[in-house]
Amino acid sequence: MRGFSHRLISIVTCIGAVFCFVACSTSGMVQSDRIPAQQVVPRYVFYFIGDGMGAAQVKLAESLLESGDSLEMTSFPASGMAATHAENRYITGSAAAGTALATGKKTTIGTIGKNGSHTATLKTMAEMSRDRGMRVGIVSSASIDHATPACFYAHVDSRKMYAEIAAQMASSGFDYFGGGYALGDLDNGRPLGRLVGTMKDSGYAVVQGWEALGKAVTGRKYWAFGSYDGTGALGYAIDRAPDGLTLADFTRHGIRLLDNDRGFFLMVEGGKIDWASHANDAATTAHEVLEFDEAVAEAVSFYRLHPDETLIVVTADHECGGLALGNRATAYESDFTILSHQKLSFQAFAGKVKTWVERKNVSFPMVLDSAKVYFGLGDSALDASLKLSPRERTAIRDAWKASREGRGTALAYGSGDPLTVTLIAILNEKAGIGWTSSVHTAGLVPVFAIGQGANRFNGVYDNTDIAKKLIDLIGRIDNSR
């Protein structure tokens, strides 16, 4: 592995050198990581992590916006690319990548906040911020004890140690946890309530829903969550009811509760970009990125009020699915906007199929009607490209038979129901979307930054360097007064 790491570092360094050469040729000057003595150090630090969000996921989401509009994150003045490999594997996982992003240190697959041999804990930038007198918040659309959020407050040998991870929330001393519930406090999807009691005993107010979160006041520590599924995660954005709490809501209230003169650190994860990409569901993936970007917009609103003391960094832990904006079937022709005809996630539709199978009262013509209603497939009045070919109709018929017979392949997150997978694959193909994998890939991930110190994030580098740059900036914050 040592030889691999050295080779990869050399490759990344060379790419970075080329990038910097081009940048310097354009601007006539070299950007430095050194902060001039007169430059203000950011007191308010935002760290956004889109789980599974590669450059293609970002561009796909942006393509669904109104003509001329752009995502908040892509409008940032500084941008870069980061390598994501783990200490012991080229294609990383969320635990190893999250640890790298939180501590600036590589670790092994599945490890949370520890070195690769599990012989030492690694201090996170969130813990450093707490120790410097800043308020600290952790937000995620996945369960709050899932790998990425856990990497900022927990130290365990395995990401699967959910109960142990959840228990470390209470001892973290952080000021705000928001988003999903805790998987470690669920039994077959039902809350046990033990963690709620532990959090309350540790001085946290535990609140759920719009009204309770709206009444939360500064000066107290909170664990806030919304409606959650059997894994403790918030529902997919594409499925959410109009009154459901969003990632942006938890971010906005987090800013309100953390705001103070000594500064704060807020990490926000868009956890279900990854899950939708595992399922190769392009429409649901795009909606998750758009919701993630709405959370970024909340930070931008704060930045505009405090431009001299705020830094916002947006990145990803890894890419998922090998998303390609183009495929063999459509060649140079694509129309990503037809993805807007998909009305619900793979998970929600698979739930419908399960009910149909159990009731045994749905015919194939009814399946085709549902394909039209929920995916636009077969409705040439919407778009001529949505017309189903004989081959596609046969594929749908075969998939429906497989669903009725209980056949299918389990996905990493959600159902591998054959009918659901087939309908989404047909829509993706018609749109011009391709997928190379149903798991993570080793592609470089984007980095966007705005605010004080943002220039440090231009270029090509390792994911540990993102953390090192942030840790250096946090270490310069003076809260001695």
From TrEMBL:
Annotated positions binding Mg(2+): 51, 146, 148, 269
A Pfam short name: Alk_phosphatase
Cofactor-binding details, from the entry: Binds 1 Mg(2+) ion.
Cofactor: Mg(2+); Zn(2+)
One Gene Ontology molecular-function label: alkaline phosphatase activity
Active site: 94 (phosphoserine intermediate)
Annotated keywords: Magnesium, Metal-binding, Phosphoprotein, Zinc
Binding sites annotated in the UniProt record for Zn(2+): 51, 274, 278, 317-318, 440
Protein name (record): Alkaline phosphatase
Organism annotation: Chlorobium phaeobacteroides (strain BS1)
